[in-house]
Amino acid sequence: METVDRSRTPLLALITYEAMDRDYQVAAGKRAQSATGTDRRASRTAVVLVVACFALMVTVAAVQTSQNADVQSASRTSLIERIEVRRERVAGLQQQAAQLREDNAEAQVTLRRLGSAYNDVQARRTRIGAWTGFEPVTGDGVRVTVDNPAYAEENDVLRDSDLALLADALWAAGAEAIAINGQRLTATSGIRTSGDAVEVNKIGVAPPYTVSAIGNPGTLSSELLEAASGQQFLALVNRYGFSYEVDNVDGLELPAAPSSQRSLREATRLLSPRTDGGGTG
User: Fold this and answer.
1) Over the stretch 189-208, which tens digit does the pLDDT of each residue have?
2) Which CATH number characterizes residue 142's domain?
3) Model pTM score
């Protein structure tokens, strides 16, 4: 701003100048105040905006944190529930396994009991099968071999009744099992003559006839001819000239009877007209 020399400046000009100078000062002051107010308002606006943005960010963060917390809480709750369910399932499976172990132990006891009973039944079946002829047997005994005489007439050969007498004599002497030419005798066996051949269990056998008997060899040999049927057979041997031989044998093996003999309806005993014979069947 210019400086006025008050001593040299005319009074009217000085008054005018000073008046204009004051106006300029007032106007400049107002402009300055106006500019300051605008800056202040801008500053305040900026502060408000910053605060608002910060508040918005804080709010968003809070909302996100809350949502995350809810999700985490829900996940934790769900995880706990799943753990509890799994624990209950594991406990149930453990109880089931314990029950199965108990059942298995009881089944093992039952199995052993049934196995023992089965073995007893099998042993009994074997004994009964051996007695009845439907199981193969092995043991000591005697072997009796008989044959027709040389150049025997048709009516002078061994017949079914003759072999039946020999078998009856062996039974009476204590035989436990008997077979004729490998055909096991049972309670339902049939010894018969079919034409010129002799059949045992409906199977033809040819001389010489081998009659094997399991039992005490000493008893069988000594008591064979003491029974009535044995004496009758010996009489036939002497009358018709049959060859006759008895041997003690260790470890005789007799097969089982044919399955067809298991039915009583299959058993048929037909004796020849000869009246001096006994029989078995």
Assistant:
1) 888 877 777 888 888 888 89
2) 3.30.70.1880
3) 0.53
Between CA 120 and CA 164 the distance in angstroms is 35
Calpha distance 60→54 (Å, rounded): 10
pLDDT tens-digit map of 201-227:
888 888 899 999 999 988 888 888 888
Say whether pLDDT at 25 is over 50.
yes
Is residue 273 one of the residues assigned to a domain? no
Any residues with CB less than 8 A from the CB of 111 and at least 6 apart, and which?
none
Task: Report yes or no: 277 and 164 within 8 Å, Cβ to Cβ.
Answer: yes
Domain count, the chain: 1
